[in-house]
Amino acid sequence: MIAATKPVRPIVRVGSVLVAILLWQLASMNRVDTWLINFGNLPAPTDVARAAASFLQSPKVVHHVRNSIFRVFTGFGVATVVGITLGVAIGRSKRIEDVILPSIETLRPIPAVAWIPLAILMFPTTEGSILFITFIGALFPIVLNTIHGIEALDSRLILASRSLGARRWSVLREVVLPGALPSIVTGLRLGMGAAWLCLVTAEMIAGQYGIGYYTWESYNLQRYPDIVVGMVFIGVFGMLSSALINRLGQWLMPWYRPAKAET
After folding, report:
1. Which CATH superfamily is 62-252 part of?
2. Contacts (Cβ under 8 Å, ≥6 apart) of 34
3. Cα–Cα distance between 220 and 242 in angstroms, integer?
4. Is 24 helix (H, G, I), strand (E, B) or coil?
5. How far is it, in rounded angstroms, from Cα 172 to Cα 162?
6. What is the pLDDT of residues 21-41, one digit of tens each?
7. How many Cα atoms occupy the beta-carbon half-sphere of 181 within 13 Å?
8. Is there a contact between 105 and 49 (Cβ–Cβ < 8 Å)?
9. Non-local CB neighbours of 87 within 8 Å, separated by 6+ positions
């Protein structure tokens, strides 16, 4: 019974998106005005589709997409290395936790837009400031989830490995990191989403090319369907990036299958 329902799931997911688009189209065509949302002011999906076709034919589309993808994966890549390293160090050492974690917890609530003026002052180029904003956004979810994964590890596994003669680095490589890997992958997925969010914010203010810059420029020029096109591109690229991280996690953890309730 369960196996028979698996092919139906993609159909249900695609169908739900199509239904949402259809409702949006009907609400825009009939200029539905509720106490919460005025659909008469929103561009219809047909207008967005025409704007998307025009954007894809533009010679600037390659520059926008290439710059955004490069910035996201560069900032995210550096954040991955730094975040996992800090998370492991803090999770394994109370002394390092006391020294570093208070600063991380103080900086973590600061929104990306608040970093932009300082980033512009700290870095000699606009590109460097945008990469920093992307890095800082992805860093904190990775650090905290790595710490959580290590602290949640059963201490008996570490004691058992040491009793069998495993040395410090062997314990870290063969017990601690594999045990914390599910939480680390979750942090990577959250960090990728935060990287896209912070990138768009930085590009809107300090960029010359990129999906965020294109979206903000469309607003300034009152090309409202193009705003939605930029939002759709951000959503699609964010979804694909998260799926890539999820696939990487499945490859790294063939033994791990999260429990899901069957309904």
Report:
1. MetI-like (1.10.3720.10)
2. none
3. 30
4. helix
5. 11
6. 899 888 888 888 777 777 777
7. 20
8. no
9. 142, 143, 144, 145, 146, 147, 149, 150, 184, 187
What are the extents of the domains in the chain? 62-252
pLDDT at 263 over 70: no
Could you tell me the two tokens for 89? 């160090």
By CB atoms closer than 10 A (0-12, 13-18, 19+), residue 60 is: exposed
CA angle 136, 62, 127 (to 5 degrees): 30
DSSP 44: P
**Mean pLDDT score, 35-62:** 86
Token reading at 233: 């591109």
251-260 per-position pLDDT tens digit: 888 877 766 6
